[in-house]
Write a structure and sequence with these properties.
Layout lengths: L7 H6 L8 H12 L3 H9 L2 H13 L6 E5 L5 H8 L3 E6 L2 H13 L7 E4 L12 E7 L8 H11 E12 L5 H23 L2 H13 L3 H11 L1 E9 L4 E8 L6
Parallel strand pairs: 1-2, 1-4, 2-3, 4-5
Antiparallel strand pairs: 5-7, 6-7
Amino acid sequence: MPNNRATQNDRQGEYSASDPRHPSSVRALFGKIASRYDLINDLQSLGLHRYWKARLLRLINPLRGETALDLCCGTGDLALALAKKGTHTVGLDFSLPMLAIAHRRGQRAALETTPRWLQGDSLTLPFEAETFDLVTIAYGLRNLADLQQGLKEIRRVLKPSGRLATLDFGKPQNRLWRGAYFAYLRCGVPLLGRCFAGDAAAYAYILRSLKQYPSQQVVADLLHEVGFHRIRIVDLVKGTMAAHYAVKRPEQKP
């Protein structure tokens, strides 16, 4: 069980989605940058995001024949990697331009079963309860308007003992490392966005969203609260990135 050292301010103040324009503005942002999204990901992470996603797959260990859901699938790299493992995969995202790219990539890939691509909202998933063996979400939790509701929805669609693996930006505990990291997100990433996507403001969004997103430990605490156990936090690159692994906890019998 995660520890409970996070304060009430951490739990309520660090993550705020009170702005009702939040979902539509995020959708518009990702639609705007879809065509350059993969290029900028490679540049801003020096290609390391591919390693981090491979680490996420090893963490969740997809098995042939399992049903998988990749939420906030973007241009589909993680969903396609799941399909290559032999899973029956659905990729869901609310951005149609992102899904169009994912669909084209799926058509070019040599797969036994190509993913099914759906436009949808991660807060109201269009699936029956207990549909999937595993759920992945990379760089998506941070963008949800209601993080706790999103985690509850993930738990709902997971089968008993279903697995969840997430990957997102983290908050390093070391103050100096954290300062340097935030400085890079404040200056370096928008510069890349301006040079290669023609839009610095779109990539400045990363730092703004990260400041509102909880720390790794608070995410783990929320996972426990909504009904997960066997929770693991995997810090990557000094905690600048963080993966979480969790298993759906059985319902408590009265």
